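Usage

Read records sequentially. Each one opens with the input sequence:
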Amino acid sequence: MPSALVMKFAVNLFLITMVTGLAEAVHFAEEHDADPALLARILGAGPMASTVSRVKADKLVHGDFEVQASIADVLKNNRLIADAARARRTASPLLDVCHALFGEMLELGHAGADMAAVIHALRARTRSA
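and closes with the structure output:
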């Protein structure tokens, strides 16, 4: 596999797991009656802040899932990265969990929503627990 493609996959792996982790953090805050907007401000001012994390946190806080990177596209990229990992027998447990969550988003009918909408899969899991 060309090194440029490997780098693209590595960057996308980080993006997918980062946004999913952010959605889970917001969901956790909501479920514990903490203010997601305050969480977004704290995260945005700290060492983990990035342009992507700030934009996606704002989407999560406001429930704005207008597409920047669609669930369907993220799932496709997730599959490509997972296939590359399997081909080299590389462990990718975080990616595997993300794959399951984004797959659930398709089943929930959110294929065209922004990837931050993965929070809906977390909410659905919470309701069914």
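Summary fields computed downstream for this record:
- The chain has a mean pLDDT of 96.
- Helices lie at 3-31, 36-45, 51-62, 71-87, 93-107, 119-128.
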